[in-house]
Amino acid sequence: MEKTDRPALRIQDELCVGAGECVRAAPEIFDQHDEDGTVTLRRVTWDETFDEDVRHAVFVCPSGALTLGETGSQ
Amino acid sequence: MSAATLTAERFPPPRPAERPLGIPEDYRRMFAGARVPHVLLPSGRTAHLLGRYEDVRAVLTGPVSADGAHPGFPMVRAGTASTSNALSFFRMDGADHRRYRRLVAADFSVAQVARMRPRLERIVDELIDGMLAGDQPADLATMIALPLPTQVICHILGVPYTDRASFQQLSDTLTRGPEHGRESFLAAVMRLQAYVEKLAVAKRDEPGDDLLSALIENFDHDDSLDRRQLAAMVLLLLVAGHETTASMITLGALALIEHPHVAEAVRADPGVTPNVAEELLRYISIAQWVPRVATEEIVLGDTTIRAGEGLIALPLMANRDPDVFANPDALEPYRWNADRHLGFGFGPHQCLGVQLARMELQVVFEALACRLPGLRLAVPVGELALRQQSAMFGVESLPVTW
Ligand code: HEM
Ligand code: SF4
C-alpha cells in the first residue's frame, strides 16, 4: 500500500475485549463482530479527515488492541 | 517500599461533610505527600494508591492481576470473602478473561445498545410519569434510578423483573460493606447461584430471545467451558448492571440539582447531553476503588512496586488530575475531553456495560433536565445517607420535590 507520513494503525484483535470504545470514537472506521463484540474495520483505507477520530479511538481503547505505529501505510 | 512509609489510613477516607461529591481531604493530604501513597487497609493488607491519570492508565494496562484469591490482592474490607469464585471473568486474567467476556460482549456492543434506545426512552418516560403522579417529596432512587437499570438488565438477560426483590437484596449483600460479614456474603452467593441455576433449567426447556438462553446454548455445546461459570456470569451481569447505574443516576441527579447551570445547558441544547453524561461520570466517579496485584515490578517515578504487592487505582483522583482536566473540580457541560475519564476503569477489565450505561444515563439525564426543571432536594444535603463503605459510592435515597 501507498506510503504516507500518516501514522499506521495496528490492530491486535487477540487483545480486544469488545468494549466498543473505538466504535464510539470513530464510527465510520470501526465496527464490532456480531458474535463476540471484538473489533472489525469498516474500511481498509481512509482519508485524513478521519485521522483525528482514529487517534482518539486508539487513546480510549482500554485493552491495548489498537496502537499507532511508525508512519507507513494505512 | 520500606515499612517506615507505611501508614494506616481510614479507607476509603470519608467524603467532606456537606459535599458528598467532593474529594476527601485525606486523599489531598496523602497525594500531597507522595505520588504513590502506600497504605495499610482496614483488612490488614497493604496497597499502593494510584491517583494520577497517567499512573492509573499505565497500571491498569500493565502487568497486574485481578485475581482476588492472590495473597497480595488488596482486599479493602476486613472479613469479606474473595469474589473470585462468585463473579466470573471480573476476577480472571489474560486469555481466560477474554474468553468468557467475549461470550457476552456482543450483547453490549455499540450497535446492540443503539437498538435499545427506544425501549430505554419509554421506560424513563413511564418512570417519570409515575413519580409525577405520586406524592411529594418522592425518593428519586427508588422511583427512577433503581428501576431503570434493573428493568434493562432483566430484559437483556431474560430474568423475570418480578424476581427483582430477591436478587436486588442479594446483590446488595454482595456489594455492600462490612456490616454484612463473611457468612452472609457466602450465603448470598449460594442463594443467587441457586436462583440462576433454577432459571437456567426453565430456559433450557423454553428458550427465549435473551442472553441467558444464548449462554445456555453456548455452555451446552462447548465442553471446554466451565459449567460453574454460567451462573457466575449471570450473577456478575446482574450485580454489575444495576446498582452501579442506579448510583450514578441518583448522584447525577444530585449534581444536576447542585449545579443548575448544567441542567440549563441540557435544556438549551439537548445535543450536549452525551458530553454532560461523560462529565458527570468524570466528576462523580462512583467506583471508589479498583484493586489489582502486581505480577511484575512496576516503577512509577521514584516508587518501585514489587511483584505480589497490592495496588488500588482511584478513578476519582485520576479524573480530577489537573494535568489532564483543566479546573478539575468544576462541572463543565462543554469540557472538551470529558470522555477521557476513567470512571469505567481502564485496561482489559474496563466496564463491559460501558455503552449501555452511557445510553441509560443520557436518556435519564436529558429527561430529568427537561421534564423536571424545578427538581430540588427535599432534605439538607448533609442529611443524605452516603454509601461510603461500598466499592461503588452511592446514597441510600434522594428525597426530591419538583
Ligand atoms: C454508570 C454505570 C457503571 C459504572 C460507573 C461502572 C463501572 C465499572 C468499573 C469501574 C468497572 C471495572 C472494575 C475493575 O476493573 O475492577 C466495571 C466492570 C464491569 N462492569 Fe460496569 N459500570 C457501570 C454499569 C454497568 C452496566 C450497566 C453493566 C451491564 C452489564 C456493567 C457490567 C460490568 C461488568 C460485567 C464488568 C466486569 C468487566 C471485566 O471484568 O472484564 N457495568 N464497571
Ligand atoms: S476499543 Fe479496543 S477493546 Fe474495545 S472493541 Fe475497540 S479495539 Fe476492542
Automatic annotation (TrEMBL), chain A:
GO terms for molecular function: 3 iron, 4 sulfur cluster binding; electron transfer activity; iron ion binding. Keywords: 3Fe-4S, Electron transport, Iron, Iron-sulfur, Metal-binding, Transport. Pfam families: Fer4_19 (PF06902). InterPro entries: 3Fe4S_ferredoxin, Divergent_4Fe-4S_mono-cluster, Fe-S_cluster_ET. Its cofactor is [3Fe-4S] cluster. Residues 11-68 form the Divergent 4Fe-4S mono-cluster domain. Ferredoxins are iron-sulfur proteins that transfer electrons in a wide variety of metabolic reactions. This is Ferredoxin.
UniProtKB/TrEMBL annotation, chain B:
InterPro entries: Cyt_P450, Cyt_P450_B, Cyt_P450_CS, Cyt_P450_sf. It comes from the Bacteria. GO terms for molecular function: heme binding; iron ion binding; monooxygenase activity; oxidoreductase activity, acting on paired donors, with incorporation or reduction of molecular oxygen. CDD domains: CYP105-like (cd11030). SUPFAM superfamilies: Cytochrome P450. Residues 1-22 are annotated as: Disordered. One of its GO terms (biological process) is antibiotic biosynthetic process. Keywords: Heme, Iron, Metal-binding, Monooxygenase, Oxidoreductase. Belongs to the cytochrome P450 family. This is Cytochrome P450. It comes from Paractinoplanes atraurantiacus. The lineage of its organism: Bacteria, Bacillati, Actinomycetota, Actinomycetes, Micromonosporales.
